């Protein structure tokens, strides 16, 4: 039998061997779901002679896709390269790149990032006379995003009687994008569905191509993604999805946990495999994870277990203040690095990006190398966005959004007022900004018009030269011809120098893309073309869209350097590290204040997030917080997180300042005996009986209750409403043990 199965437990084997028909693998964190996927793909190729071109695997992040690719290649060799392994968004870009013209867009479409989206929304709001102080642009953006993830067009919203402003903004926003031949991230999914629905021949092509479909982290798919999967799998029905409903953490972005819960009713013939053993973590870590997640309602209870050994108790450190907390983490890392661990074994996880600053400072102070995942993306830097706008405008001179961005960058004496006038004129004549220039006599001042003409000539000159160049040398040409580089050089500041470095970095990336990555993309697509055959402009367009989807820019070399990883918990999904720190474990930070205010549903999602965070750890887990810290420029004090109170004290090793008294647990918790047994003091009573916290009692008047505290003869007992907590003498005859 195949070596591929040797290292798998019986349930995992079953999942790998069940290659035909729908299959659901539902299992807790670290139970080998992702590993099943990679081995299944290798198995299909090596044992079932399935062509790599007929296999699709979808992961949640680019990083996960890269890792899966590497693993598959390790298992099966070079041929593994040809398997289409990507995120939903990258897959859709590739599908649209071939056929988006069928639904009216140009094949050279460009992707819009969130900052650009916001500026389009602002312009649209201005046009519609909507006051951004009354309804924020971000509000509209999120409403539009929700609608798209639900595959709803403006007219669908209309039927549902939505906020009329949202419908108007959505409509106009979408027109603007279409006119500029741009799509946003949500469009990638929605337009793919439109393409499949309106052009069955395209759908049929991909149905025949992807005969074996795999989806990781299925619990976090949204409706549009669900639809894409359903359509693709319709013909062969060989669809394998894996996930864990306890790890659904993207409902704020439209993910719908129902997708995984209803898989069995969507595919009544589905096989279902449950995995129980965790191979990642020591038992103590799993105990803590189990303790937290069991407080969520309506879940199928599953207890994670591992035979990796009991492990150390979880180190819970409460610092006096935020900087002390950060220094504690840095000290621990520096100390542990001396013996067993390397920098890359550590991860520091936090709830929100803004928490990274304090940690970064502490690590810098100790000279500990780190990588920040997420954060301010390289592609959001001004100089990179400017360069990309130039490149886009050269590929598509009618792209008004890029035009506006660079027409006066570097300064060419073309002011905002002139651009405004030109915009009105262009809108009236239904022309793009670039093509309106030639008719704009009298619209703007003569001198400005000449400058606009020069700008246009420059862009068209560059456009005419692109095919004489490689990507990198064309980028050089653009930077020099536009005067952009000279502008930075003249600045002569450290800041400008670093911008120049970043542009150089962009060039290296383009070279790597042209020499290596592009051939891989084409191979996966089963394309006859080779990178060398493609016109430079086509390469450039593929590059620009590819870059828009990347969240990190680490080269392989950088990724191999040993550094501590800093990231949000959302970004850590699916990953594992020998030592994990979770910081800011405070009510108000984690869970977020808004979730505490919103109530049950939001709190449950925060709790799932806590579960994801805890289960990233293999050997050691540290949970930290601070009694007070600077937040939003003010000193504030937060109580310790409710999630730490859910972890049994027997699994915790507490250090740092004395924890403040825990708020007394709720009656419901006490009745269900979930409350931790603190103060386990035994007192002798006259009657000879003794009371402990957690004892269940029966009182003649108050009914059933639970002992929640013992102080000498006096015991505190939690009774059902309306009685609440009563302090009574332990020896009182009305009181009996149950
Ligand atoms: P998550 O829910 O966090 O995504 P997962 O279920 O996808 O977790 P994996 O990441 O696939 O779990 O596996 C967790 C770890 O356990 C990995 O290091 C993996 O290599 C290891 N592992 C899984 N199955 C086995 C096995 N049968 N034998 C040895 N190691 C295993
Ligand atoms: Mg996984």
UniProtKB/TrEMBL annotation:
Catalytic activity entry: Couples ATP hydrolysis with the unwinding of duplex DNA by translocating in the 3'-5' direction; ATP + H2O = ADP + phosphate + H(+)
EC number, as in UniProt: 5.6.2.4
Residues that bind ATP: 27-34
UvrD-like helicase ATP-binding domain sequence ranges: 6-282
Keyword Isomerase: yes
Protein name as annotated: ATP-dependent DNA helicase
Domain annotation UvrD-like helicase C-terminal: ranges: 283-574
Alphabetized Pfam families for the sequence: PcrA_UvrD_tudor, UvrD-helicase, UvrD_C
Record-linked Gene3D superfamilies: 1.10.10.160, P-loop containing nucleotide triphosphate hydrolases (3.40.50.300), PCRA, domain 4 (1.10.486.10)
Molecular function GO terms recorded: DNA helicase activity; hydrolase activity
Top-level taxon in the UniProt lineage: Bacteria
Family designation: Belongs to the helicase family. UvrD subfamily.
Lineage of source species: Bacteria, Bacillati, Bacillota, Erysipelotrichia, Erysipelotrichales
InterPro entries: ATP-dep_DNA_helicase_PcrA, DExx_box_DNA_helicase_dom_sf, DNA_helicase_UvrD-like_C, DNA_helicase_UvrD/REP, P-loop_NTPase, UvrD-like_ATP-bd
